[in-house]
Every structure is written in structure tokens, then in C-alpha cells.
Amino acid sequence: xxxxxxxxxxxxxxxxxxxxxxxxxxxxxxxxxxxxxxxxxxxxxxxxxxxxxxxxxxxxxxxxxxxxxxxxxxxxxxxxxxxxxxxxxxxxxxxxxxxxxxxxxxxxxxxxxxxxxxxxxxxxxxxxxxxxxxxxxxxxxxxxxxxxxxxxxxxxxxxxxxxxxxxxxxxxxxxxxxxxxxxxxxxxxxxxxxxxxxxxxxxxxxxxxxxxxxxxxxxxxxxxxxxxxxxxxxxxxxxxxxxxxxxxxxxxxxxxxxxxxxxxxxxxxxxxxxxxxxxxxxxxxxxxxxxxxxxxxxxxxxxxxxxxxxxxxxxxxxxxxxxxxxxxxxxxxxxxxxxxxxxxxxxxxxxxxxxxxxxxxxxxxxxxxxxxxxxxxxxxxxxxxxxxxxxxxxxxxxxxxxxxxxxxxxxxxxxxxxxxxxxxxxxxxxxxxxxxxxxxxxxxxxxxxxxxxxxxxxxxxxxxxxxxxxxxxxxxxxxxxxxxxxxxxxxxxxxxxxxxxxxxxxxxxxxxxxxxxxxxxxxxxxxxxxxxxxxxxxxxxxxxxxxxxxxxxxxxxxxxxxxxxxxxxxxxxxxxxxxxxxxxxxxxxxxxxxxxxxxxxxxxxxxxxxxxxxxxxxxxxxxxxxxxxxxxxxxxxxxxxxxxxxxxxx
Length: 650
Prior knowledge:
Helix content is 10%, strand content 37%. It is mainly beta.
């Protein structure tokens, strides 16, 4: 890439805190550079979300001015924002299929409503009749009233917030909030990250899909063994039945093939939300999906270990109800700076939403799709992939697709089917994605480069396409997109945004021993990149961390032209930085949406000597969020408006 310069006109003042007066029109902007903040060093800093970063604006003529950034909370998940049947309930409250709050009965005679502490994806929609709406995921609930793990047991939810916007400063406040009705899609399973489509709809997700093979194995157990497992708490390893009991009221509606798909949320002019699940996009551990500028091609983050890189090409623009699904084979070309390789795409099949949903409604089971063997046999393919992680059978499966079941395999079990066809199922913790439209580059976050991405020195894996050095702090990759590509069978792929190659862009640095603050990765480099969002206007990639290697997780700004890396937000110790999305020109203002979830998680296990660890735990417990009690939904404010701009290069 050549040198790039931005010429930006500041047309609508600055988005500053509410106490700052409006700013009159100013000269054209030549460049914008983030100035980072140091890592927190005190108990007070470590226990709260905050920013002391800034933005330096250089105007035409060379004059410079610095604008401070700060963190603005919109709401806590424990705040009583939702009106339901004449009462106010917490924003993080999950609802059942009838719209009633789901009750935590883990403490005898003391039932309480579950409240999620884990806000994730944010989509700040483009103004609808000048009104601003925010769609936010409540990914899961960390613990129940007894303190036991509740992850992936409790039905999840989404919130639609109507926001008031200060016309002078751009400050946002929640005017009204409602739960989005997900009964039409049978509830929602672990909605992690998400994205805003080019046509202004929110694209949701369902990660860590339940394993249909394990579910069926349990269904076929003899009654006495099933009863014994239930007594020992060893039954329902995927929590599919528990989910159904809490959401539908009956376990008989449990079906693993209902979950693991992206959904689309549209908001009408009257502020009503409608949600549709897109089954033709394929079932996987959907971290999120991102649609390319052609309004047809999409890529997916497939979270977990031994996962796969997928691409979808819709039949029509702005219509995700039918299309072709592809899986990538990785051919490694290097190991430096996170590694590199070329991509070859294997077409898994073509389907419509209704075709796949019909298969589910007919009750198709894993055993209807695949034959299995317990050891290598002719005609069977050895497969190792994520969804069998919580199963009791061997991680390496020997599978054969039954005649006529290729479509079911392609869209209900695309990872298993893709591996049979030769696609690479060795990616680990594939998280966020973000598109750089001008350069035709897709950024991909690998939160933890280990396990399947390492060289298989023990010969335990069926394939070993990826052979990279272990880097627990992860890698952010850049994938080059191009057109005129063919799939493995030699057929043209009808897209100008096909992934051709991928190479490391930003790497973390693991530490051999923890530092005084308990960090096991370099605190001045990114550890475990997760959420990604890209600003075309700023030529900046924003990166949010989901790291146990940093005691405090951060949001970073990375200038792709200069390589400058700036820390711009710190979230409470133990919390994950989530819901990251850059939103420009929302009625003339720009925002970096950013949430945090599960504050205080695992902090007690850290070896911290720089501050009093008990004082830190006390501060976290006394904060408005508590420890695993509540999460925060908010944004970084202080950005200049970027509504009028001219890009030049030389």
C-alpha cells in the first residue's frame, strides 16, 4: 500500500462529553492519530472501565489540536430498563418462549430472576427516520445463585434500545429499551459477536453449537444408565435439554439442530424489531458473520478449537435466504509473524433457508446423515473438529455420509462434511472479522494460536495443514480478497471477494513468567484479539481483547498505514472487552461502541504483587458491576465527526 492521506471536513462539531460546549465549523482535517494510554497501575484504575487516551487532529495548514477520549456507559445489564407486564426488569433478564422472565431456582426457597452479566455485540443502526437504535446481545449468564457455572445452560436474549442523542455534543442516552422477541427462532443460543449488514440490519450469531452426535447417544441410553447419569450430573453434556426446559418449559422440544445459525434483526420505522434465522448460512460455532461490499459474500468466525474457515455467496444481493456454502483448505507458506498461507475453497453445497429448516422439522438426526466407525475403515474419513469437544467418544471420528444426505451434511454439519471433503479444521479460537473495503482485506482474529494450529508432533490429528509456533496471545491476520477464483472442483466462484491468501499482521508476546500485575503476556502488545472493527475514514483497525493473559483487557487502535498501536480503553479486571464496533455518521457524529462482560472473572487466581490483590477483589465487588453480577454497555466518546471527507493518495 502507498502512503495515504485523509482530508476530512468537520461539518457537525465534535462528539465530546456533555459538559463540553458545541464547536463551530473548523478547517479541513488532514489527519487523525490516536494517542494511547498507559496500562492501569492502581486498584482504582484496575477496577473500572476508563480511557485517558486522546485523538490528535492535524488541520490543513499544519495546526494541531488534541481531543480527550472518555468512556460513556449507556446502561448496566442489571439496570431495570425493560417494561414487562407493568413491572421493570433488568436489561439482562432472559425470557422464555411466552415472554416471561426465566427463574433461577438453584437456591431452595429463594427463586430469583436470572440476569446476564455478559453483554456482547452492538449494532448502532444507521438512523431510521433520524432515530437511533442499538441492538445488543446478552451472550450468556456466568453463574447461578449458588455460584455454579451457568454458561450455555440459560437461554440468551437481545435488547433493542432507542437512543436519545444530544444535537450539540452527540452524547447518547437510553430513551427506551425492549427485549427482542426471539420466539420465532426457538430462542437464541449463546449469541456472541455480531455485525451490521450493508443494508442496515443486525446480523446475530450462535456460537458453541451443541453436538448432535452426543445428544443422540444420550437419547439412546438404556433407562437405568440414563437415570444413573442424571443422578451423577453426567447427562446432557451439551445442555440442550436444560435449555429447552427453561425456554419451552419441556425437554421434549430439545433439538441440537435448531441452534448454531446466524440470525438477522431488522428494525422498522415504528421501532419494532423482527428476527429471522438464516439456515442456508450453515451451522457452526458462529462468533459472527461479516458481509462484503458486494452485498452477497460473507465470512464467518468459527470459535472453539479445531474449527473451520467458511465463506457464503448469496444468490441475490441483500438476501441471505439462499446461497452456496464453501469451506477453506489452508496451504501453509510461512511461519514468521504469525504465519501465512494460501486458501483453496471447497463448495459444500447450495441451499435455501426453507430446505434446511424442513430437514430440521422432519427430525433429521446425526445417524440419519452419517455412518460411523470406531476405528479406521475403508470408505470412512478420519475427522477431528470442535463440536465433539464435550462428547464422551473419541475426538477423532470415522465418518461416511449416507447416500442422499449431502445437503443435510453440508448445512447441519458443515465442519464434519468439510473435513471429509478436505477442508482444514485446525483453526483455534477464530473470533472477530472486519472488512477493509478499499484495500479488499478481511481482518481475522485468532485469539489463541495453539492446539490444532501447532505442528502435530505426536501424530494424533487426521491432518496437519497448519504447523505454526504456539502463541497463546494470538494473532490478527490479514486476508487478501480477490475475484476470478475457482473452487477445488474447478468451478468459478461467483464473487469478487474470495479469500486468496492470509498472513499475520499483528502478533502478541507471551511471557515466560507473570509480571507484577499478573499478566502472562506483554501488557503493551495485544493479547488474545477478539472483537474487530475497521474505520475506512481513519484507516484504523480497532481490536478488543478476550484474554486471561492480561488481567485487565483493552481496546486498541491500530493504524494500518503507519503500524502505530494505541491502547484506548481499559475494562475492569477479569472482564472481556466486547461489543466493539465503529459507527460513523450517526446524525453527524462518530462512536466506538464498546461493552464489557463478566468483570472479576478469575482475578482471584492471578499472581498479583504490584497492588494488594485482596484490595482489588474488594474494589471489584464494591463496584456498580460486582463480580460476575453485571456487565456494561457503552461507547468511547470524543471522536471528531467524519461526515465529509475526501481520500487522496500518492
